[in-house]
Amino acid sequence: MTDLTVEGVKLSEGLAQTSLPKTPDVRFQASILLSELPKDQIEKLKSAGTPVWWKPEPNELPAGGIGEIVMRMRRDPKIGRFTSAL
């Protein structure tokens, strides 16, 4: 899996990073405020809880398989229900 959409906004575009880590244990900063998204899309992500990071588990699924997406939000969502898509 390479991307996740929250409230119609691709997280690959919404979660900008200060640098790309060379290994999984390298820390880096990522924020919707570092992105070049228009203000209305940033506000959508803020109302959804301000995503910080996400990961699929497992990374690849066979057809009909079951997996899980773990997403860390900075705050509680302000909307009653948010939508996401793979």
Describe this structure in words.
The chain has one domain (5-85). The model has no long low-confidence stretch (mean pLDDT 82). The longest helix is centred in the middle third of the chain and has 9 residues, at 39-47. With 86 residues, it is an alpha+beta fold. It has helices at residues 11-14, 39-47; strands spanning 5-6, 9-10, 16-17, 30-31, 51-57, 68-73, 84-85. The N and C termini lie close together (8 Å). It is built from two helices and seven strands.
- How many strands in all? 7
List the strand order in the largest sheet: 2-1-7
Rounded mean pLDDT is: 82
Strand content: 25-35%
Largest sheet: 3 strands, antiparallel
- Global outline: globular
Q: End-to-end span in angstroms?
A: 8 Å
Would you identify the regions where 5 or more consecutive residues have pLDDT less than 50? none
Question: What's the structural domain tally?
Answer: 1
Class inferred from helices and paired strands: alpha+beta
Output the helix-strand order. Answer: EEHEEHEEE
Number of helices: 2
Helix content: 10-25%
Rg on CA atoms, Å: 13 Å
Task: Write a concise synopsis of the structure shown.
Helices cover 15% and strands 27% of the residues. With 86 residues, it is of the alpha+beta class.
Topology:
Elements: E1 5-6, E2 9-10, H1 11-14, E3 16-17, E4 30-31, H2 39-47, E5 51-57, E6 68-73, E7 84-85
Task: Please describe the structure with a list of short key phrases separated by commas or semicolons.
86 residues; alpha+beta; two-stranded antiparallel ribbon; 7 strands; 15% helix; globular
